[in-house]
Amino acid sequence: MSVSLCREDGVYEGGRELKATWRVSRVTLDALSAIEISVLWYTEGKGDMDLHVHYFQRLEEEQIRRSGLADQQSLTCLLPATPLSYHGRLIRLRWCVRMRLFLNSGREIVTDQPFHLVAPKSIQPGKSHRVNAISLGFQPPRKRPDAGNDSAG
Fold it and tell me: Where does 2-135 sit in CATH, by number?
């Protein structure tokens, strides 16, 4: 299974649209009971973890069968202005597109595609978004060496 963002640098301005595509592979239709796709933020670090789901879609067995798994599916949502991604010494606030597969066996498979939410109008046209993200203290998401070679097993 895989999730791909429309922006290679993974940096999005608050109040703007996020577009992503997702696909399930190496899992048969008969093995799936549901698929959830969500856009969320969570905190890491000192103290309790907070998590907030901004966008959520769940496909049940019948919907999965109708849409099939061979085709790439799309997700579009309007991002909020805040909270912005943050990487501090004691706490980090991270955004991601999360995909969860629920198998009939009771097993769950989860993958996260991280991205960075930055202040509205902080990305200047024609300038490297990567430079802007790093100047704000963020590292763009790295491509995983296994991307495209996901395994459910």
Answer: 2.60.40.640
